[in-house]
Amino acid sequence: QICLSLVKLLFYLAHSPLGSIVLLDFQPRQFVMVDGNLKVTDMDDASTEELSCKEDNDCTLDFPTKSFPLKCSAVGKCEGINEKKNLFNAYRYFFTYLLPHSAPPALRPLLSDILNATGDLRYGINETLKAFEKVLHLYKSGLYLQKRPLLLKDYISLKGFRTVKGEDYKCWPSYSHLGCLLSIHSAEEAAAICSSQSRCQSFIITQQRTWTGRPLASFQSSWTDLIPDTNAIVYIKRSASSGERL
Question: In DSSP terms, which residues pair with 234 in a beta bridge?
């Protein structure tokens, strides 16, 4: 969410009515999340000036660990230098820390491609935004779940019940520090997650939603503490208890 919002912001800055705007003091402390969108808190160090040049050798974009040769345009300006400076700063201050973590395994190669392409400046802001929107579409639609074994059949569902809330086993990347609360696309994906965790014996899909509209599922190491809840369904591993006992 943070990286996508930042890319949308940089897309606007690259195509603003004032021209391409560069953030000269690009630091995480210069940004704040407001209603799920990243905002710049200080525009004092923003500039529309692009580096003047006479030849391509005048257009090297230098960072502490990397340098990038750019082209000198016919009008004597280094082509895309403001856009590329913003994008590489987004890569080194945000993407490298946030993109490798917490995505579903099927989407990680796509995020790795974005990370590598922006780190080498092979992508401009247009290509980067398009790549992020593709990942978001796959994530929201559940298309990344294709060609998976169906595991929900290994669970018994009990409508009108849920497990008692409390501390339980922890997992990464949980939305709660007290247990294992993860974003899912469907009950089938929740079953796959539970089946992959040795301590998981049951799960319940909550009424909570993430910023993409995906529900959160709570994964539990037991299923014995059940309480009535007309809006809930608890899913229990068949191996955890026989149908007769239930």
Answer: 158, 204
The verdict on whether 25 is a catalytic residue reads yes
DSSP string, the chain: -HHHHHHHHHHHHHT-TT---EESS--GGGEEEETTEEEES--TTEE----B-SSGGG-EEE-SS-EEE-PBPTTSBBTTHHHHHHHHHHIIIIIHHHTTSSS-GGGHHHHHHHHHHHHTT-S-HHHHHHHHHHHHHHHHHTGGGTT----GGGEEEEEEEEEPPS-----TT-S-TTSEEEE-SSHHHHHHHHHH-TT--EEEEEEEE-TTSPEEEEEES----EEEEEEEEEEEEGGGS-TTT-
Q: Tell me the pTM.
A: 0.85
Give pLDDT tens digits along the chain (246 positions). 999 999 999 999 999 999 999 999 898 999 999 988 899 987 778 999 989 999 999 999 999 989 999 999 999 999 999 999 999 999 999 999 999 887 888 899 999 999 999 999 999 999 999 999 999 999 999 999 877 788 999 999 988 888 777 668 899 889 988 889 999 999 999 999 999 998 999 999 988 899 999 999 999 988 777 888 888 889 999 886 554 445
Domains of the chain, start order? 1-144 (1.10.510), 152-242 (3.50.4.10)
Rounded to 5 degrees, what angle do the CA atoms 173, 175, 178 make?
A: 100
Catalytic residue among 25, 42, 45, 58: 25
